[in-house]
Structure formats: C-alpha cells, structure tokens
Amino acid sequence: MDKDLDWKEKKVILLLVASSLMVYLFSWQIPLMEIDAVQYANISREMLLHKSFFQVYDQGRDYLDKPPMLFWLSAASMRIFGINDAAYRFPSFLFSILSLYSTYRFSCLYYSKRIALLSALVLAACQAMFLINHDVRTDTMLMGWVMATIWQLAAWLQKKNWKHLIWASIAIAGGMLTKGPIALMVPVFAFSAHFVLTRSFRLFFRWEYLVMGVIILLLLLPMSFGLYHQYDLHPEKIMYGKTGTSGLRFFYWTQSFGRITGESTWHENDSFFFLFQNLLWGFLPWTLFFVLGILTGLAAWLRKKFFLSSGEEGISLGGFLITYCALGSSRAQLPHYIYVVLPLAAIITAKFINGLLFENRYPRWRKPLSVFHYVIFSLLTLALFFVISLPFPPFPVILFLAALITAAVL
Q1: Which sign, positive or negative, has the C-alpha torsion 393, 399, 400, 406?
Q2: Is the bond preceding residue 394 a cis peptide, omega within 30 degrees?
Q3: Distances in Å between the alpha carbon of 307 and those of 187, 194, 196, 198, 232?
Q4: Considering only CA atoms, which of 243, 244, 262 is closest in space to residue 253?
Q5: How far is the C-alpha of 107 from the C-alpha of 84, rounded, in Å?
Q6: Per-residue pLDDT tens digits for 15-61
Q7: Which stretch of DSSP H or E encloses residue 286?
Q8: Has this prediction a pTM greater than 0.70?
Q9: Can you tell me the distance from the alpha carbon of 191 to that of 402, in angstroms, rounded to the nearest whole number?
Q10: Closest CA to 95 of 283, 322, 342
Q11: 301-308: which pairs have CB atoms within 8 A and are 24 or more residues apart?
Q12: Is 237 within 8 Å of 162 (Cβ atoms)?
C-alpha cells in the first residue's frame, strides 16, 4: 500500500466507484431510448435471429453506418440472457468496467495509487458515464477498447514485454470493429504528443509496429469480408442516395475522415466549441476541476518549455487536446463523440484534485472552489425535486422539506 494512501481513503474511493456501478445497473429499469439505442438493439436481435453475423441488416434493409462489434457482442448476450434491454446493455457495462480498470492501471504506471484511484472515481462518477450506460451506443465499448490500448502501449514502453504489444493490437482492432479508425487515431495522437514532449523521436520508428499492423489487419478480416460481399460486390445497391458505394472505403475512410474532408454527407453541429460546451454538463460534477486541470497542466508544460522527463507522461493531456482538435474540426458532431477520451480527462482531473486537496499546491483556491461546489450542488439537489414534481403532481410537501434539509446538510 502506498504511504500516501491509507486504508480509509482507499475504502471510501472504492465504495464510491462501486456505488456508481450500481447506479449504472439501476438505470436498466428505464426502457431503451429512441433512436440509436433502440435501433442498435433491434439490429442485434435481427442478427441473432437470422444468423447474419458478417452482413448487417436493419429490419431487412442493408445497414451501413456502424461496424459490427456492438451488434456481435449484444447478439451473443441476447443468446445467453434472452432478448431484452438488459441483455443488450450488458456487454457495454463490462466495457465500462474495462475503462475504469484500464484508467487505474495506466495511472499506476506514472502516478501514485491515490491519483490512480481518484482517476477511476472521476471517470465512474461523471454524468456521461451514467448516460452511456443507459443510452447505450458504440461509445461505451469504444472507450474501453481505446483506454485498454493506451494502458497496454504505455506498459510496453516501460517493460518491453511482447504480451502488452499483442494486447494493444487486439484492443485497437476491437475498437476499429466498434467505431472505425478513431480507435487507432486516439492512441496515435496520445503517444505522438508523449514522444515529442519527452524528445523520444526514435520511438516513432520501431519495427514492432509492423507486427502490430499484421495482427490488426488479421483481426479486421471478418468485418472486411462482410463489407466486401455486402457492398463492394454489389455496386448497384443504393446507399445514401447513390450507387457504387464501397463498404470498405466507407468504414475505413468516409465515415471518419470524410467528416473532415467534406466527403461525408453528414453535416451538423460543426462549431469547434460544440463538444466542449456539451462536456461542461457531461463531465459533471468534475467540470471545473477538469478545466483547471487543463490550464495548470498547460502552464506546467510552458514552464518546462514543453519538455518532460522520462518519468513524466504527456499521454493524457496531449491525447485529450489533439483528439479534441481533430473531432472539433469535423463537420458533423454529436455530444457523445468526445466521450472516447473521458478516461484521459479523468486523469487530468484527478491530478488537479490531488494537488488541491492532498499536496496543498493551490491553497488560495480551496475555499472558493468549496463554496462554489456547495452552492451548485445544493441548487442541483433542489432542482431534482422540482423536476420530479412538475410532471408528477401533486408534490408532497414532505419531499420538498427533505430537499431543503439535504441542501442544508450538503
């Protein structure tokens, strides 16, 4: 056990993480929401019933939008647990646990046990995690694959053990089978920033990357086979209003990079600040700590003239910022697109919280931040009761009094 972390602290953090996981499960009592979650669950059901695992259909029609990993795993879950909402959500819940574990293990490579546990807690208890465990799309799985990749690659860089490189390759392939090239690009962004900041330019050119490429290509063959037979062999099919659509080109280029180049037909929410504005509520209750974590992290880089020693990491902050810039330049954005780097945001936040509360780095900020959060969460507690009362009148007075008492206690 680390000297900077006593058993009481560890027990409290683990209890809060476990409580967050329980909330994920309790949310399964709420039916799936339209449009995406219901559509994906139905595609998984249809895949199971028709045994069409290499060609994806939605109500009998060709489906060309998302890769098949979510449908494969949800169909397998439905085969075991029956066709229901919980069976559809269960695989994504497991990937939430993978995200938390990978975040913890990656943080342990560079930071204290306290920061590692705080990182897991920040990720587990942010609003976005509660949302994507109820309204399940591809992003929950993608987050797990990507953070597992980053953890395994970091472990390989430190320990030079082949098993870490192999697991990283599997995770990249799994992420690409979940949501396309973004699963490869986020680790590339993160480690490119790290290599530059640590002046480890030789790490850009390692022959082991060729082995990774071979493993990834082999694991992508089943999806590529299905796409080729479903679309490339049938150019007469009309997809997105035109014929001659290549399934391979769509998944490996148009769906991701085409949103930046303009090749994609999707065009919505193209402001560079759109994702940040949505992250302000999506990362509650940690938003202010996160913003301050980014600012203090950049200030530290500036003081060091953008040079980090071998024991430091630029993966989390660099990976988040570069990924945000890439996604923010897209012509088609939705709030959950940024959730792929929530684990990196959690690490940035945990580092700041540790410095604020346990290392006394920012003594002047403690009282203002405490007062600010007391006020905000007291108001949110009151707002919760009002939101409950408006659609379900009459509202018992005793519950309103309970809200006032809770706010006062907080």
Answers
A1: negative
A2: yes
A3: 20, 10, 8, 6, 48
A4: 262
A5: 36
A6: 999 999 999 998 888 888 888 889 999 999 999 998 888 888 888 88
A7: none
A8: yes
A9: 49
A10: 342
A11: 301/197, 306/197, 307/197, 307/198, 307/199, 308/194, 308/197, 308/198
A12: no
CA-nearest of 277, 255, 245 to 332 is 255
Please give the Cα distance from 338 to 282 (Å, whole number): 10
Cβ neighbours, 10 Å, residue 54? 16
Contact 395, 366 (CB under 8 A): no
Question: Both tokens of residue 138?
Answer: 């591809």
Residue 126: Cβ within 10 Å count: 24
Q: Which structure tokens are listed for 273?
A: 């600040």
Q: What is the gyration radius of the CA atoms in the chain, in angstroms?
A: 22
Distance, in Å, from the CA atom of 233 to the CA atom of 228, rounded to the nearest integer, reads: 6
Torsion of the alpha carbons at 110, 115, 119 and 124, rounded to the nearest 10: 140
Residues 6+ apart with CB under 8 A from 128: 282, 283, 336, 339, 342
Alpha helices (H) along 82-112: 85-110
One-letter-per-residue 3-state SS of 331-377 = CECCHHHHHHHHHHHHHHHHHHHHHHHCCCCCHHHHHHHHHHHHHHH
Residue identified by tokens 């987050």 is: 143
| Crossing angle of helices 182-197 and 162-179, rounded to 10° | 130
Amino acid found at 367? K
Q: What is the pLDDT of residues 98-119, one digit of tens each?
A: 999 999 999 999 999 999 999 9
> How far is residue 371 CA from its own chain's centroid?
30
Residue 350 to residue 373: CA distance in whole angstroms:
16
